[in-house]
Amino acid sequence: MALPALTTQALLDVSGLIRAAPPPFRSIRDLHKPGEELKPLDFKPGEKFAYSNNGYIVLGMLIEKIAGKPYAEFMRDEVFRPLGMNDTDCEEPIQVLKQRASGYARVDGTVVNAAYVDMRFPGGAGAVYSTVDDLLLWDQALNSDRLLSASEKSKLFTPVKEDYAYGWWIQTKFKRPVQWHRGNVSGFVAIIARYPAERLFIAVLSNFDRTQVRATATELAALALGEKYEFPREHKELKIDPATYDAFVGKYSKDEQPDDMFAIAREGDKLMMQIPPGRPVFEIFPEAPRQFFAKWGEYYLTFSKDAQGKVMRVLIRNEGDVGTWTKAP
Predict the structure, then answer these.
(1) Do 7 and 104 have their domain in common?
(2) Which residues, including other chains, have CB under 8 Å from residue 322's CB and lie 6 or more apart?
(3) Do 55 and 137 reside in the same domain of the chain?
(4) Residue-wise DSSP of 93-130
(5) 113-126 pLDDT tens trace
(6) Residue 25: Cβ-neighbour burial (10 angstroms; 0-12, 13-18, 19+)
(7) Across the chain, where does the E strand assignment appear?
């Protein structure tokens, strides 16, 4: 049996209740009582991979059990202070923290304070705050043997399933190995990316919801590595005749991976896109006669035509990653 997913909304709910008197929840353990609200496994252990914050929450609990001390205290004593990361710790809501950043969000075009989340609840899944300077110390520690031996680091950065290792995505960008991870909580989003062969380290921290940190990190890497880059920008919708959408309708397959396909269809005055399998259909909006964008992220498409004016190919830029697809005849 598996623990139920702990959603962002659940964290918001319990964070609000924690302020009640007396508080009905004191720790994440109150949400994960053994035998309650368990559900069947999605698949057999080791058979597939699915990212889950619950796994990191449970890992934090295991650290407390084995170390015999709270997770925050363990991280402070064994990791942060020995590495000189003096501006890094686990969130404590009542603590007055110098230069603590406030989180913001945008609602109906207006910037507002992000909803409050008590970060003691996610624990091992994201209770840590830090600075770019301290994160550089963390990167330097990973490049040494101060925390882990060579064999332990090899295991740390070796994918177990679907490009995921022990807390790191292990992939290739710009024909170079990259180790990265992104995270977000109400009002905050961040990413760390490491290009080990080049000893290149990139950290992007934002206190604004939905900031395109992955796109920014990818473009910063391109800049540092001498590759082509294009920083995230504001996309503005252009009003054009929906009849022109018909030229873009069809199925497309990726040049390097023909099995990687998507479809574009017109629904009245809207141009819709679907990336299978099982992905929801979403609308793309014109910002130029041959260029469209999605409003949920730094995702845009640039179409090209042949000499007869027929749409043949499309270049997609997705959070800094670029690929080219060819339209089926």
Answers:
(1) yes
(2) 315, 316
(3) no
(4) TTS--TTPPPPEEEETTEEEEPPP--TTTTGGGT-EE-
(5) 998 888 887 788 88
(6) middle
(7) 89-90, 104-107, 110-113, 128-129, 169-173, 176-185, 188-195, 200-206, 250-254, 261-267, 270-274, 282-288, 291-294, 299-305, 311-318, 321-327
The answer to the question of residue 55 being in a domain is yes
How many other CB atoms are found less than 10 A from the CB of residue 179?
19
Residue with tokens 């992905």: 279
- pLDDT at residue number 191: 97
The pTM assigned to this predicted structure is 0.81
Beta carbons of 198 and 225 less than 8 angstroms apart: yes
Rounded to whole angstroms, what are the CA distances from 278 to 7, 180, 282? 21, 26, 12
Which residue, of 113, 128, 143, is where some domain finishes? 128
| Angle value at C-alpha 41, between 39 and 46, nearest 5 degrees | 155
Residue 80 sits in a domain whose CATH number is 3.40.710.10
- Average confidence (pLDDT) over 148-173: 95
pLDDT in tens, 9-59: 555 555 554 555 555 555 555 655 555 556 677 888 888 888 888 888 889
What average pLDDT does the chain have? 87
**Cα 232 from Cα 220, distance rounded (Å):** 11
**CATH for 304:** 2.40.128.50
Q: How far is Cα 284 from Cα 281, in angstroms, rounded to an integer?
A: 10
Could you tell me the residue range of the domain that residue 31 belongs to? Answer: 1-128
Confidence (pLDDT) at 126: 86
Residues 6+ away with beta carbon under 8 Å from 13: none
